[in-house]
Amino acid sequence: AAEEGFDPEEVEGAIEAAGHGPLPVLAVVGRPNVGKSTLVNRIIGRREAVVEDKPGVTRDRVTYEAEWAGRRFKVVDTGGWEQDVLGIDASVAAQAEYAIEAADAVVFVVDAKVGATDTDEAVVRLLRKAGKPVVLCANKVDGPSGEADAAYLWSLGLGEPHPVSALHGRGTGDMLDKVLEALPEAPAQTFGTAVGGPRRIALIGRPNVGKSSLLNKVAGEERVVVNELAGTTRDPVDELIELGGVTWKFVDTAGIRKRVHLQQGADYYASLRTAAAVEKAEVAVILIDASESISVQDQRIVTMAVEAGRAIVLAFNKWDTLDEERRYYLEREIETELGQVAWAPRVNVSARTGRHMEKLVPAIETALAGWETRVPTGRLNAFLGELVAAHPHPIRGGKQPRILFGTQAGTKPPRFVLFATGFIEAGYRRFIERRLREEFGFEGTPIHLSVRVRE
Ligand code: GDP
Ligand code: GDP
User: Can you tell me the mean pLDDT for 356-376?
Assistant: First the structure.
């Protein structure tokens, strides 16, 4: 590497950064209007979250990537769901519950000017039960005079209240230092303790695509319910289900089975639940209703799973209802609307008739194998050498950026770092990704490509 003009330490660092593996998850929970979204904006350092959104407006995302003091993590923002027919307590509890379930640590936001309310106390009970590390954020402390308000929050019994002004940034750095202390390096519940246990599947898809029908079909009488959080309003529950002679863990099946009728915020609630399930899973089985046009909502769910870096299987359900014409149009729609996951294995099933249920497990296994694939550095560089020689990067401004070498920094999903002499254009990156897939497979998995440019 050194003779190519890269400092070996820089190479080392780049490989480590790119191969970070799954990121730990931080959930930001609390009552409406305490400043959760404002705080999330602060943490991610962008204006991307959605303070000005109206209640109930569908949001694209609930999970964001963030970095503080050189450490990366994900943030789950629960600010989008304001209230619903269940009443404020139940709705705050339910959203907090899903966020806490997915998280490795929690920031609990309280409005220090208002003080602790009964609803806050209810969330404290949930937090105690979950046993996750909690950092208490006493928000809206915009100046020194508010510090006394913050001190009152010791009464919640969650340890030191951290006085913060999410709006102005006051105190957020100190609080984030505490967050990093609370947050494990890697998501324990997802990839640490469970190694060697059953593989984890998230069965996701928009309402009415047939998730609970499919689950009932595959589960039969076999299922074992695990990991119950008793006594809460809506229990996230995982189920062990034997399929194809192997035991799998279907995560958050309670969310699938329970028919939640919400008006305001229902979409947001569904996407929060989906995000939580995806975070806990290794592979996402995305169910799509083949009898209807592929919708923006379907695409959002696909994007969520891709961005989370999970193995992906596409299952087109209700195949029993399709006539020849619909089949024709479906194929066109898949090409135009689902191009971003053209690499995902696909099964055409019917939860009603049981059609092709036996194809589900091989597809899942294929996706997991792609997700775990590791290409030896020698093979990768032989491949890159030939590729670059045969298809050089286009010349820009009289210069031709060249890829010197590369390495696979991590798996689950596969992550590559390429070292180059100049900026590599998006089109050429896509070309490399396509050729990598042709050469090495990677069926059913997103691929991360990062490029380091020699100074
Ligand atoms: P969420 O419902 O918990 O996500 O709350 P938002 O982030 O939407 O904030 C609710 C309101 O409180 C907005 O008008 C914010 O501008 C305001 N707010 C948030 N943080 C602070 C703060 O630190 N100080 C003050 N004074 N206002 C804040
Ligand atoms: P979920 O909201 O995704 O859990 O969807 P459900 O499992 O509740 O199914 C929604 C509706 O679609 C129900 O009326 C099911 O009977 C129906 N349904 C589910 N799978 C199939 C299928 O494969 N074929 C047909 N014809 N209907 C289905």
Answer: 96
